[in-house]
Amino acid sequence: MGGLEVRELECFLVLAQELHFGRTGERLYVSQSRVSQLLGSLERRVGARLVSRTSRSVRLTPLGERFRDALEPAYGALRAVVDDTRHAAREVAGRLRIGFQGTADDRLLAAVTAYQERHPGSRVEITEVALSDPFGPLHRGEVDAAVVLLPVEEEGLVLGPVFSRQPQRLTISVRHPLAARSEVSAEELAAVPLIAAAGPAGEYWRRAHAPLVTPGGRPIPEGPAVTTLQEGLWLIAAGRGGMLLCEPTAAYHRRADVVDIPVTGLPETALGLVWHRDHENARIRALSAVVAETVP
């Protein structure tokens, strides 16, 4: 039965109903000769004649009748599985789990609200994605989509809309020698140990946000590794190093014992909506469309 074609089975079942090659071809939108080809291929796989054909009549052989009786319920069940799966893939109503790395700001929450308003019956659940594990929840199926800091180079993940491009700021202790500056250059990062994310975050992602060298090639000291942003802020306040943060994140977490300073000479940060290719469905595509339309 290796290599059995569903099209052959479908052709046989229609022919068993019509008992006419021409009408069978019309129902399947194929030629009469194609019906003969499909039937012949199926009979060669089975190893026996299933249909007896003369110039005046078409009828099933006894084996063909037995085959039809056994095949019809199995084929019907297969069609039901396909139809149910197709419906689920196209269904927008239902639960959508969205992970946010850091803070879900007003623009992203407005996009979530717009998604729910456009798709009555949808239910959005929001969860935080750890700084140290931006892509793990997607790989483990804990969330359907996630808003994470770029870059994304993970196998199996799809990058959707990119948004919220922001200049980077250096967050350091108020006691640091650079704290009184109105801005610093990227080359001056050589004087600041940069705190990086620990854990399973990929090295390429970790070094995008805590580089080891300046754009000019000067080495940047490695600071401690942390699993959460709050851990990083505590270490910054204690004078253990600094962190590169986007402007909104630095503003949201502003506190009296740290200061954030614009950095010139570094690329902007950006957020992206990401999901796993194997889990893509209509809900994720609908969310992606809303985010692309509403979040700058």
UniProtKB/TrEMBL annotation:
PROSITE patterns: HTH_LYSR
Alphabetically ordered keywords of this record: DNA-binding, Transcription, Transcription regulation
Pfam families referenced in this protein's UniProt entry, alphabetically: HTH_1, LysR_substrate
GO cellular component: protein-DNA complex
Source superkingdom: Bacteria
InterPro entries, sorted: LysR_HTH_N, LysR_subst-bd, WH-like_DNA-bd_sf, WH_DNA-bd_sf
HTH lysR-type domain residues: 4-61
GO molecular function annotations of the record: DNA binding; DNA-binding transcription factor activity
UniProt similarity note: Belongs to the LysR transcriptional regulatory family.
PANTHER family xrefs: HCA OPERON TRANSCRIPTIONAL ACTIVATOR HCAR, TRANSCRIPTIONAL DUAL REGULATOR HCAR-RELATED
Name of this chain's protein: DNA-binding transcriptional LysR family regulator
